[in-house]
Amino acid sequence: MEKNYLDKIKESSFFIRTQVSDLPEIAIILGTGLGDLINHIEDKKAIEYKDIPNFPVSTVEGHSGRLIFGTLGGKRIMAMQGRFHYYEGYDMKDVTFPIRVMQNLKVKYLFVSNAAGGMNKEFKVGDIMVITDHINLFPENPLRGRNFEELGTRFPAMTEAYKPDLINLADEVASKNNLRLMHGVYVGTAGPTFETPAEYEYFRIIGGDAVGMSTVPEVIVANHAGMSVFGISVITDLGGKDIKEIPTHEEVQRAALKAQPNMITLMKGMLEKL
Ligand code: HPA
What we know:
By secondary structure, the protein is an alpha/beta fold. The protein is built from seven helices and nine strands. The chain has helices at 5-19, 92-95, 97-104, 164-176, 197-205, 216-224, 249-273; strands at 26-30, 42-48, 66-72, 75-81, 109-118, 128-136, 181-188, 210-212, 228-238. The radius of gyration is 18 Å and the shape is globular. The termini are far apart. Hypoxanthine (HPA) binds at residues 115-117, 194-195, 211-213, 236-237, 239, 247, 252.
Protein backbone atom coordinates (compact mmCIF):
# COMPACT_ATOMS: atom_id res chain seq x y z
CA MET A 1 0.00 0.00 0.00
CA GLU A 2 2.78 2.35 0.99
CA LYS A 3 4.27 2.74 -2.47
CA ASN A 4 1.12 4.45 -3.73
CA TYR A 5 0.13 6.15 -0.49
CA LEU A 6 0.69 9.71 -1.74
CA ASP A 7 -1.02 9.00 -5.05
CA LYS A 8 -4.01 7.52 -3.26
CA ILE A 9 -4.36 10.60 -1.09
CA LYS A 10 -4.13 12.88 -4.13
CA GLU A 11 -6.69 10.81 -6.03
CA SER A 12 -9.25 10.99 -3.21
CA SER A 13 -8.67 14.65 -2.71
CA PHE A 14 -8.91 15.37 -6.45
CA PHE A 15 -12.28 13.64 -6.56
CA ILE A 16 -13.56 15.72 -3.65
CA ARG A 17 -12.37 18.91 -5.35
CA THR A 18 -14.46 18.01 -8.38
CA GLN A 19 -17.54 17.75 -6.11
CA VAL A 20 -17.10 20.71 -3.77
CA SER A 21 -16.07 24.20 -4.79
CA ASP A 22 -15.84 26.07 -1.49
CA LEU A 23 -13.52 23.87 0.56
CA PRO A 24 -13.44 24.29 4.36
CA GLU A 25 -10.50 24.85 6.69
CA ILE A 26 -12.34 23.08 9.50
CA ALA A 27 -13.08 19.36 9.74
CA ILE A 28 -15.14 17.58 12.38
CA ILE A 29 -15.16 13.87 13.18
CA LEU A 30 -18.56 13.02 14.58
CA GLY A 31 -18.20 10.36 17.22
CA THR A 32 -20.91 8.65 19.21
CA GLY A 33 -23.06 11.43 20.62
CA LEU A 34 -22.47 14.10 18.04
CA GLY A 35 -24.33 12.63 15.08
CA ASP A 36 -27.16 15.12 15.46
CA LEU A 37 -24.80 17.96 14.68
CA ILE A 38 -25.48 17.03 11.04
CA ASN A 39 -29.00 18.48 11.39
CA HIS A 40 -27.51 21.85 12.31
CA ILE A 41 -25.35 22.07 9.19
CA GLU A 42 -26.70 24.40 6.49
CA ASP A 43 -26.29 24.10 2.72
CA LYS A 44 -25.31 20.48 3.07
CA LYS A 45 -23.69 18.43 0.41
CA ALA A 46 -22.93 14.79 1.18
CA ILE A 47 -20.39 12.51 -0.46
CA GLU A 48 -20.67 8.81 0.34
CA TYR A 49 -17.37 7.21 1.38
CA LYS A 50 -18.02 4.46 -1.13
CA ASP A 51 -17.95 7.02 -3.96
CA ILE A 52 -14.56 8.47 -2.98
CA PRO A 53 -11.67 6.62 -4.66
CA ASN A 54 -9.45 4.77 -2.13
CA PHE A 55 -11.62 5.74 0.85
CA PRO A 56 -12.23 2.96 3.36
CA VAL A 57 -15.91 2.14 3.91
CA SER A 58 -17.32 1.93 7.44
CA THR A 59 -18.58 -1.39 8.67
CA VAL A 60 -20.43 -0.56 11.89
CA GLU A 61 -24.19 -0.88 11.49
CA GLY A 62 -26.03 2.38 11.78
CA HIS A 63 -23.02 4.36 10.62
CA SER A 64 -23.72 5.65 7.16
CA GLY A 65 -20.21 6.65 6.17
CA ARG A 66 -20.19 9.94 4.38
CA LEU A 67 -18.50 13.31 4.26
CA ILE A 68 -20.82 16.25 4.75
CA PHE A 69 -19.84 19.70 3.51
CA GLY A 70 -21.73 22.77 4.64
CA THR A 71 -21.91 25.71 7.01
CA LEU A 72 -22.04 25.55 10.80
CA GLY A 73 -21.71 28.43 13.24
CA GLY A 74 -21.19 30.65 10.21
CA LYS A 75 -18.10 28.67 9.08
CA ARG A 76 -17.52 26.35 6.17
CA ILE A 77 -16.91 22.88 7.58
CA MET A 78 -16.63 19.29 6.53
CA ALA A 79 -17.86 16.55 8.83
CA MET A 80 -17.07 12.86 8.84
CA GLN A 81 -20.21 10.91 9.60
CA GLY A 82 -18.77 7.53 10.49
CA ARG A 83 -15.15 6.91 11.36
CA PHE A 84 -12.84 3.94 11.00
CA HIS A 85 -12.00 2.13 14.21
CA TYR A 86 -8.90 0.01 14.67
CA TYR A 87 -11.02 -2.67 16.40
CA GLU A 88 -12.99 -3.15 13.18
CA GLY A 89 -9.82 -4.55 11.63
CA TYR A 90 -8.67 -1.54 9.61
CA ASP A 91 -4.96 -0.94 9.68
CA MET A 92 -3.66 2.37 10.99
CA LYS A 93 -3.10 3.79 7.50
CA ASP A 94 -6.82 3.26 6.75
CA VAL A 95 -8.00 4.58 10.12
CA THR A 96 -6.13 7.83 9.44
CA PHE A 97 -6.51 8.03 5.64
CA PRO A 98 -9.32 10.64 5.85
CA ILE A 99 -6.99 12.92 7.84
CA ARG A 100 -4.42 12.75 5.04
CA VAL A 101 -7.11 13.66 2.54
CA MET A 102 -8.13 16.60 4.77
CA GLN A 103 -4.48 17.65 4.86
CA ASN A 104 -4.35 17.59 1.09
CA LEU A 105 -7.55 19.67 1.01
CA LYS A 106 -5.76 22.21 3.25
CA VAL A 107 -7.83 21.68 6.39
CA LYS A 108 -6.30 23.65 9.30
CA TYR A 109 -8.51 22.68 12.25
CA LEU A 110 -9.67 19.24 13.32
CA PHE A 111 -12.46 18.84 15.88
CA VAL A 112 -12.82 15.26 17.16
CA SER A 113 -15.47 13.77 19.39
CA ASN A 114 -15.98 10.40 20.99
CA ALA A 115 -17.66 8.43 23.76
CA ALA A 116 -15.44 7.38 26.64
CA GLY A 117 -15.49 5.60 29.96
CA GLY A 118 -14.61 7.79 32.93
CA MET A 119 -11.96 6.87 35.52
CA ASN A 120 -11.71 10.27 37.17
CA LYS A 121 -13.68 10.05 40.41
CA GLU A 122 -15.19 13.50 39.94
CA PHE A 123 -16.81 12.52 36.64
CA LYS A 124 -20.47 11.64 36.21
CA VAL A 125 -22.16 9.85 33.34
CA GLY A 126 -23.21 12.49 30.82
CA ASP A 127 -20.30 14.83 31.57
CA ILE A 128 -18.39 16.28 28.68
CA MET A 129 -14.63 16.33 28.89
CA VAL A 130 -12.28 18.48 26.86
CA ILE A 131 -9.30 16.34 25.97
CA THR A 132 -6.20 18.16 27.21
CA ASP A 133 -3.79 15.35 26.36
CA HIS A 134 -3.73 11.67 25.50
CA ILE A 135 -1.91 8.44 26.26
CA ASN A 136 -1.50 6.21 23.23
CA LEU A 137 -2.02 2.58 24.23
CA PHE A 138 -2.84 1.33 20.76
CA PRO A 139 -0.43 -1.46 19.82
CA GLU A 140 0.79 0.61 16.90
CA ASN A 141 1.56 4.21 16.00
CA PRO A 142 -0.07 5.39 12.75
CA LEU A 143 3.21 7.07 11.71
CA ARG A 144 5.18 3.82 11.92
CA GLY A 145 6.88 3.05 8.64
CA ARG A 146 8.28 5.21 5.89
CA ASN A 147 7.90 8.93 6.55
CA PHE A 148 6.94 11.16 3.65
CA GLU A 149 8.56 14.53 4.36
CA GLU A 150 5.89 16.29 2.31
CA LEU A 151 3.33 15.05 4.84
CA GLY A 152 5.26 15.92 7.98
CA THR A 153 8.42 15.46 9.98
CA ARG A 154 9.83 12.07 11.03
CA PHE A 155 9.67 12.77 14.77
CA PRO A 156 6.75 15.11 15.42
CA ALA A 157 6.27 16.69 18.85
CA MET A 158 3.03 15.86 20.65
CA THR A 159 3.46 18.49 23.36
CA GLU A 160 0.45 20.49 22.23
CA ALA A 161 -1.44 17.70 20.50
CA TYR A 162 -4.63 19.44 21.68
CA LYS A 163 -4.24 23.19 21.09
CA PRO A 164 -4.33 25.24 24.31
CA ASP A 165 -6.07 28.13 22.50
CA LEU A 166 -8.92 25.85 21.51
CA ILE A 167 -9.19 24.45 25.04
CA ASN A 168 -9.46 28.03 26.36
CA LEU A 169 -12.09 28.83 23.77
CA ALA A 170 -14.10 25.76 24.87
CA ASP A 171 -13.94 26.96 28.49
CA GLU A 172 -15.20 30.39 27.46
CA VAL A 173 -18.11 28.99 25.47
CA ALA A 174 -18.97 26.55 28.26
CA SER A 175 -19.05 29.20 30.96
CA LYS A 176 -21.14 31.51 28.78
CA ASN A 177 -23.67 28.70 28.30
CA ASN A 178 -23.51 27.39 31.87
CA LEU A 179 -22.20 24.02 30.75
CA ARG A 180 -20.29 21.77 33.12
CA LEU A 181 -17.08 21.10 31.21
CA MET A 182 -14.45 18.77 32.60
CA HIS A 183 -10.82 18.58 31.48
CA GLY A 184 -8.87 15.39 31.19
CA VAL A 185 -6.43 12.99 29.63
CA TYR A 186 -7.85 10.50 27.12
CA VAL A 187 -6.39 7.00 27.08
CA GLY A 188 -6.71 5.42 23.64
CA THR A 189 -6.93 1.63 23.49
CA ALA A 190 -7.53 -0.82 20.65
CA GLY A 191 -10.75 -2.29 22.07
CA PRO A 192 -13.20 -3.83 21.37
CA THR A 193 -13.37 -5.04 24.97
CA PHE A 194 -14.36 -2.56 27.62
CA GLU A 195 -11.84 -2.51 30.46
CA THR A 196 -11.57 -4.85 33.40
CA PRO A 197 -11.92 -3.06 36.75
CA ALA A 198 -8.16 -3.43 37.21
CA GLU A 199 -7.52 -1.86 33.80
CA TYR A 200 -9.70 1.18 34.55
CA GLU A 201 -7.78 1.52 37.80
CA TYR A 202 -4.45 1.18 36.02
CA PHE A 203 -5.38 3.83 33.44
CA ARG A 204 -6.38 6.20 36.24
CA ILE A 205 -3.10 5.63 38.10
CA ILE A 206 -1.01 6.33 35.00
CA GLY A 207 -2.77 9.68 34.56
CA GLY A 208 -5.86 8.95 32.49
CA ASP A 209 -9.27 10.49 33.15
CA ALA A 210 -11.24 8.72 30.42
CA VAL A 211 -10.68 5.78 28.08
CA GLY A 212 -11.95 5.05 24.60
CA MET A 213 -11.26 3.14 21.40
CA SER A 214 -10.69 5.92 18.87
CA THR A 215 -9.33 9.43 18.36
CA VAL A 216 -5.65 8.94 19.22
CA PRO A 217 -4.60 7.69 15.75
CA GLU A 218 -6.42 10.54 13.99
CA VAL A 219 -5.01 13.13 16.39
CA ILE A 220 -1.44 11.88 15.91
CA VAL A 221 -1.74 12.12 12.13
CA ALA A 222 -3.48 15.52 12.28
CA ASN A 223 -0.58 16.84 14.39
CA HIS A 224 1.94 15.35 11.98
CA ALA A 225 0.00 17.20 9.27
CA GLY A 226 0.31 20.48 11.17
CA MET A 227 -3.39 20.86 12.05
CA SER A 228 -4.71 22.46 15.23
CA VAL A 229 -6.70 19.81 17.07
CA PHE A 230 -9.59 20.04 19.51
CA GLY A 231 -10.98 16.89 21.14
CA ILE A 232 -13.97 16.18 23.28
CA SER A 233 -15.35 13.08 25.03
CA VAL A 234 -18.80 12.30 26.37
CA ILE A 235 -18.46 10.28 29.55
CA THR A 236 -20.89 7.43 28.91
CA ASP A 237 -19.97 5.05 31.74
CA LEU A 238 -17.67 4.92 34.73
CA GLY A 239 -15.00 2.35 35.51
CA GLY A 240 -12.80 1.45 38.43
CA LYS A 241 -12.40 -1.17 41.11
CA ASP A 242 -15.35 0.12 43.18
CA ILE A 243 -17.71 0.43 40.25
CA LYS A 244 -20.11 -2.44 39.75
CA GLU A 245 -22.09 -1.29 36.67
CA ILE A 246 -21.32 -3.29 33.55
CA PRO A 247 -20.87 -1.10 30.45
CA THR A 248 -22.75 -2.01 27.28
CA HIS A 249 -22.79 -0.49 23.81
CA GLU A 250 -26.47 0.42 24.26
CA GLU A 251 -25.77 2.23 27.49
CA VAL A 252 -22.88 4.09 25.88
CA GLN A 253 -25.15 5.21 23.04
CA ARG A 254 -27.96 6.24 25.39
CA ALA A 255 -25.66 8.34 27.57
CA ALA A 256 -24.01 9.90 24.53
CA LEU A 257 -27.39 10.84 23.09
CA LYS A 258 -28.33 12.59 26.34
CA ALA A 259 -25.19 14.71 26.31
CA GLN A 260 -25.63 15.55 22.65
CA PRO A 261 -27.39 18.95 23.05
CA ASN A 262 -24.55 20.20 25.27
CA MET A 263 -21.93 18.94 22.84
CA ILE A 264 -23.69 20.72 19.99
CA THR A 265 -23.94 23.98 21.95
CA LEU A 266 -20.23 23.79 22.66
CA MET A 267 -19.17 22.95 19.10
CA LYS A 268 -21.39 25.58 17.49
CA GLY A 269 -20.31 28.19 20.00
CA MET A 270 -16.66 27.46 19.31
CA LEU A 271 -17.05 27.59 15.54
CA GLU A 272 -18.79 30.96 15.78
CA LYS A 273 -15.74 32.34 17.61
CA LEU A 274 -13.07 30.67 15.52
N1 HPA B 1 -13.96 1.91 27.62
C1 HPA B 1 -13.52 2.00 26.35
N2 HPA B 1 -14.19 2.63 25.41
C2 HPA B 1 -15.35 3.22 25.73
C3 HPA B 1 -15.85 3.16 27.03
C4 HPA B 1 -15.13 2.47 28.02
O1 HPA B 1 -15.54 2.36 29.19
N3 HPA B 1 -17.03 3.84 27.03
C5 HPA B 1 -17.20 4.30 25.77
N4 HPA B 1 -16.19 3.93 24.98
